[in-house]
Amino acid sequence: MIIEGLKSHGSGNDFLIIDELTTNLTFTEQEREKLAKALCDRGRLGADGILFVMKSEQADCRMRVFNADGSEASMCGNGLRCVARYANDALGLDKMIVETMKANLLVEKTKDIYKGIPTFKVEISPVSFNVKDLPLIIERETLQNEPLPELHSSLLFSALAVPNPHLITLVDSEILQSGLQADLSAKVNQPNELFPDGVNVSFVKELEPGSIYVRTYERGVGFTNACGTAMSASSLVTCSIGLNELEREISVYNNGGKVKCVVHFDEKKQTYSIDLIGNATYEFKISLEIDKNQPEQFVILEKQKFEEETSLYAKLQDEVQTYLQTAL
Ligand SMILES: N[C@@H](CCC[C@H](N)C(=O)O)C(=O)O
């Protein structure tokens, strides 16, 4: 079969978009898993995941996210911005609802985060601090800026599902530069008693009022340039502990760029939601010939780069990296 794919990224978190919305492509569950493993392999094409954009009966379109290891995730914030742009181009809707595994989410085109960079705002919700929703197996109902001695003797952790699972801790430069995050992340993402389904692990550093840096080890992938749901969850955690404020834009720096988050609290429903605002950049169009039974044998027939937008994004990335060299 021939797949016309599109490689895109949100803050350098990169995905191959496969269109089942405007084409007749369709896959079995096993084929999706195998495709993700084969195409995300950095030795070949390479990506953090695959985003399948599909028809939906309850929303304008549907997104399914497969991590590089072939596992399916319930949500992907950076990926949702890429899907928002893709569906916006395909359906001509600046504002739409995207069905995801656990929620139908509002996405919309918004003011460029940096001159000339296509920017989308996506809703991150539902949010739960109940450890059962990750799941995290401990004797308490929540873990909010508290020790988790089974994992580390002194760090304070917050666990939340947005709705994919996140474990977040605030650290200083010394801890950030140590190998601790890699060690802890490896522990909770291999068979273990605390997080039976694994968890995305973020180390967060406060930079200046209204600005934070977030680095994430993603379940099913490893360290990525950025993780959108992790940056949203981290913004909420910094509001809960009084570092940032609800309803105020937070600048979230990451190794692949920068996004903005706004954390909302609905008094009536007693629920949180987060707006994640950032780039949705196309890298290249690609035409692949694939045997569904042996996807690792795929052949690249054609590749067309989006030169202008990738070089514009490189400017934002340069500015961010220069800032981080002194800020971290
Ligand atoms: N990169 C994503 C999250 C992708 C899923 C995650 N690895 C998981 O398994 O939960 C994002 O931008 O949110």
TrEMBL record:
Similarity section: Belongs to the diaminopimelate epimerase family.
Gene name for this UniProt entry: dapF
E.C. number: 5.1.1.7
GO CC terms in record: cytosol
UniProt protein name: Diaminopimelate epimerase
Subcellular location: Cytoplasm
Metabolic or biological pathway, per its Swiss-Prot or TrEMBL entry: Amino-acid biosynthesis; L-lysine biosynthesis via DAP pathway; DL-2,6-diaminopimelate from LL-2,6-diaminopimelate: step 1/1
Species name: Peribacillus muralis
Record keywords: Amino-acid biosynthesis, Cytoplasm, Isomerase, Lysine biosynthesis
Gene3D superfamilies: Diaminopimelate Epimerase, Chain A, domain 1
